[in-house]
Design goal:
By secondary structure, this protein is mostly helical. It is built from five helices and no strands. Helix 2 runs antiparallel to helix 3. The chain is elongated, with a radius of gyration of 25 Å.
């Protein structure tokens, strides 16, 4: 896929794919636990049940994240961090960042 430079604005989350894969794994793990329990293999049935539990937990986490909705993403005019001048960088290292913290509080 070609990069356009506006990925934060049009980014797509893989949560629905993760949900589908977790549901697929949950179905197979439950089927495996039932099948192994039916043929008298309790160890394998327990292992499949544990995998089913992990998959069910993952389904719950993904559903929670999907229900939260989209999160705030800053626009193009918001820099990812506050730019610092060259004089402040030297003072920041020399005195443990006291000048930088003071400058931040002064605003």
């Amino acid at each position: 896929m070609l990069r356009t430079g506006d990925e934060p604005l049009h980014a797509r989350s893989p949560l629905r794919l993760r949900l589908g894969l977790a549901l697929w794994g949950l179905a197979w793990a439950v089927a495996g636990a039932v099948a192994f329990a039916g043929v008298g293999r309790p160890g394998w049935a327990t292992a499949c049940a544990v995998i089913a539990g992990v998959a069910a937990l993952d389904v719950g986490c993904v559903l929670r994240r999907l229900r939260q909705g989209p999160h705030y993403q800053p626009g193009r005019d918001v820099p990812p961090y506050e730019p610092v001048s060259d004089g402040v960088v030297g003072a920041r290292h020399a005195n443990g960042g006291a000048a930088w913290r003071h400058r931040r509080r002064a605003r």
